[in-house]
Amino acid sequence: MVVGILTVELSLGDIFSLKEKRQIVKSIIDRIKYRYNVSIAEVDKQDVKRRAVIGMACVSNSNQLVDRQLDIILDFLEVDGRFAIEDIRKEIL
Q1: How high is the mean pLDDT of the chain?
Q2: How much is the pTM?
């Protein structure tokens, strides 16, 4: 069994309320969850308006499949124009 873990820190730019932040983060999480079938959640900086940390995990029997899946998710995030990616941590166990 191979487990891939991806943690992405996002900078949300000109967000003025936690409500706005939560709408964007929830949208990102829902889209990734249903499109790529991974476990995903906001894992840090929940009370910081302009930052979010999203963690996700993928399980498979192949290192290549997990690595490719996480890379595809990163590509998907980079195309979204509502935020900038500040930090990426990827680990395959």
Answers
A1: 89
A2: 0.84
